[in-house]
What we know:
One of its GO terms (cellular component) is plasma membrane. By secondary structure, the chain is mainly alpha-helical.
Amino acid sequence: xxxxxxxxxxxxxxxxxxxxxxxIAIGYTMVYGIIGMINFAHGEIYMIGAYTAxxxxxxxxxxxxxxxxxxxxxxxxxxxxxxxxxxxAVERVAYRPVRGRHRxxxxxxxxxxxxxxxxYVHLAQGSRNIGFPALIDGGFNFGSGDGFQMSLSYMQITxxxxxxxxxxxxxxFISRSRTGRACRAVxxxxxxxxxxxxxxxxxxxxxFVIGAALAAVAGLLLGMYYGSVDPLFGFIxxxxxxxxxxxxxxxxxxxxxxxxxxxxxxxxMTSGYLSGEYKDVISFSLLILILLFKPTGLLGKxxxxxx
Length: 307
C-alpha cells in the first residue's frame, strides 16, 4: 500500500508539471505547424507572463483587495494581455521581415529576440529570485498517519482544472471557429490559403498571440506552484516544452499535450525513484529513443514533398 501511495504521488506530481509543459509546448507546435519555424523566444514570453502576473498580484494586494478569485482572474488577464502583445510583437519584428528566406535566418532572429527579452527582464527586475505569493494552499492527504501520506494540493487541482479548460477551449476554437478553420487551412498549404482570400498574415499573428496567451497561463500556474520567478525562469521551461513538442510530434497539438504529460511524468518518476540529478538525463534519453524509432514524434505525421 505504501508503494502504491508513493507511486501515485509521483504520478500526480508528474502530471502537474506535464500539464504546464503541454500549455507552453502548444505555442511551439502551433507556430511550427503554420509557418514551419521554431519560436525560440517563446520561453521568454512565458517568463514575462509570470512576471506580469506577479506584478499584478502585488499591486492588487497593496491596494487592499483580498478576494482571491478576483485577484487571480485580474492577474491572469494582465499576464495574457501582456504576453499576447509580446507574441504579436515578436512575430512582427523577428519573423515577418525574414519569412520566406532560408530557415537559418528566422532561427537566428528568434534566438536574438530570446536573448534580448531575457536581458531586458534582467535589467528591469534584477537577477535575483523573486518570491511568488502562495495564494492557494492546503489540500488533501491520503494514507495512514504513521506511514507515507500522499498529498493532492489545491494548487495541483487548480493546475489540472485550468489546463483542462484551456485545452478544451483551444480544441473547440481550432475545430469550430472561422479563425480556427483558417489556421488549419494555412497549416496545410499557406500559398493556396492566400490565393483563396485568407489573410495569412493575420492568421500567423493570431497563432503567435494564442500560443503566448497559453504560455502566460502556464507562467502564472508554475509561478504559484514553485513559489519564485527569475530571468532564467523561461529558458529551462521553454527548453522542456520544446522537447515535449518534439516528443509528441512537432506541429501536432494533441502531440504537444501528450508529450508534455509524458515528459512531466518521466521527470517525476526519475526524481522519486532515482535522483533529481538524473531527471534531465532520463527525459532527453527518452526523447532520443522515441525519435530513433519514430522520427516524427509520437503523433507527428511525415511531411510529403510534392514534386
